[in-house]
Amino acid sequence: GAVVSQHPSWVICKSGTSVKIECRSLDFQATTMFWYRQFPKQSLMLMATSNEGSKATYEQGVEKDKFLINHASLTLSTLTVTSAHPEDSSFYICSASSALGRTFGNTIYFGEGSWLTVV
Amino acid sequence: DAKTTQPPSMDCAEGRAANLPCNHSTISGNEYVYWYRQIHSQGPQYIIHGLKNNETNEMASLIITEDRKSSTLILPHATLRDTAVYYCIVRVYGSGNTGKLIFGQGTTLQVKP
Q1: Do B46 and A108 touch (CB under 8 A)?
Q2: Digit-coded pLDDT (tens) for A49-62
Q3: pLDDT higher for B39 or A28?
Q4: Which residues of A touch B (CB under 8 A)?
Q5: N or C, which end of chain A has less CB nearby within 10 Å?
Q6: Which residues of B83-100 are buried (b: 16+ CB within 10 A; e: fewer)?
Q7: pLDDT digit string, tens, across residues B12-66
Q8: SS3 B82
């Protein structure tokens, strides 16, 4: 299947600093990428949907100014956690939609995830 | 909210078929059913998806009932490596969006020797 890669796989940052996580589609062009986070023993929670070249759409309850999403190209989306706090520590996962133009019934592939620990 | 319900856990003997059920009684006509699995501390792995016809690939088969209100994922010969959380998801399309995957709690499948 198609490959979606995240970087870094894990990161530790100090409270109050910002951290950026990258999501790349390696062998296909992704018009849409999705960002999730997952706390231990819980399911994935959708944070936002990003379309290439436009502003991200955030789910209810997700702070836009805290979780900055940029989707500048068809192969790269970034999530920046600003002014990180220990409660932001989580597993962040991106996914990418695999086809240009056709969205009904296309396949969505997930990255391997990024562990963020804020100390 | 997720539009699917799944049993929280299931066991399966190694080498036997694993049949994972999913209810999606409120599914709409253009909404696909997707199946993913997640092994601890990894991103979800795509398994299969379908609209109304049964589907089969190298990993699994997807059987969708005629009324589309439920489906079953079949792993034909389960191995220990198939132990994971399996998510059945109805992809939801709102106005102007490209369809989102909203995860429920999934089914934890334990394959036993």
Answers
A1: yes
A2: 998 888 899 999 99
A3: B39
A4: 1, 4, 6, 31-32, 34, 36, 43-46, 49, 51, 57, 91, 93, 95, 97, 103-105, 107-113, 115
A5: C
A6: bbbbbbbbbbeeeeebbb
A7: 999 999 999 999 999 988 889 999 999 988 999 999 999 999 999 999 999 999 9
A8: helix
